[in-house]
Design brief:
The structure holds two protein chains of two kinds.
Chain A lengths: L2 E5 L2 E4 L5 E8 L5 E8 L3 E10 L2 E4 L6 E6 L2 E6 L8 E8 L8 E2 L3 E5 L1
Chain B lengths: L3 E3 L4 E4 L4 E7 L6 E7 L6 E6 L3 E5 L2 E6 L4 E6 L8 E11 L4 E6 L3 E6 L1
Parallel strand pairs in B: 2-11
Antiparallel strand pairs in B: 1-3, 3-8, 4-5, 4-9, 6-7, 7-8, 9-10, 9-11
Classes of the chains: A mainly beta, B mainly beta.
Chain lengths: 113, 115
């Protein structure tokens, strides 16, 4: 069976500090990978998606970047965090031909102080 | 105008009530319509999906799509306290740019079922 891991679960970081969130998927090959941010009242905002190693597409301009160094690893980074980066970050995967189902990780709650 | 609109709630109902959750959308190109359930501090999980107008039933849950009105609904019969969660509608369409399906989520409706 497939599983998706995210860590850390909770993170409190000062403004201006760097960020690295990691997501790994087990039990599947060549998945599409996604990073979302969920803020209260704003739903799930797609930040990045990847259809393969090294292939990253950004949906919104922002202070964040993503990388996919391995087939089942997806990393969300920032060089300098802003207060507005606070939120609940969710990683998700789908099969390449997926039309309706995404599988979400447990999320990372980031608070920038 | 947002592509997908969803009332954030919160919605409080007594145990056993029928719950109706709704979303409207503006893009007629959407092909698949989904409902996800998200418990507090967890990731969303897929409840149901459909791709055509009409009803689809799964146990106590019924998903309804009206493409002519651009309106989707999720009905929960005999609601239970364990149904207390945030329910997100979602829609997808094929993106030629990426060669994959693009997903758009509603903001979610918080539901509380009171025992």
């Amino acid at each position: 069976s497939q599983t998706i891991h995210q860590w850390p679960a909770t993170l409190v970081q000062p403004v201006g500090s760097p960020l690295s969130l990691e997501c790994t998927v087990e039990g599947t090959s060549n998945p599409n990978l996604y990073w979302y941010r969920q803020a209260a009242g704003r739903g799930l905002q797609l930040l990045f998606y990847s259809v393969g190693i090294g292939q990253i597409s950004s949906e919104v301009p922002q202070n964040l970047s993503a990388s996919r160094p391995q087939d089942r690893q997806f990393i969300l980074s920032s060089k300098k965090l802003l207060l507005s980066d606070s939120g609940f970050y969710l990683c998700a995967w789908s099969v390449q031909s997926g039309k309706y189902e995404q599988y979400f990780g447990p999320g990372t709650r980031l608070t920038v102080t | 105008q947002k592509e997908v609109e969803q009332d954030p709630g919160p919605l409080s109902v007594p145990e056993g009530a029928i719950v109706s959750l709704n979303c409207t959308y503006s893009n007629s190109a959407f092909q698949y319509f989904m409902w996800y359930r998200q418990y507090s501090r967890k990731g969303p999980e897929l409840l149901m999906y459909t791709y055509s107008s009409g009803n689809k039933e799964d146990g106590r849950f019924t998903a309804q799509v009206d493409k002519s009105s651009k309106y989707i609904s999720l009905f929960i019969r005999d609601s239970q306290p364990s149904d207390s969660a945030t329910y997100l509608c979602a829609m997808s369409l094929f993106s030629p740019k990426s060669g994959t399906y693009k997903y758009i989520f509603g903001t979610g409706t918080r539901l509380k079922v009171l025992a």
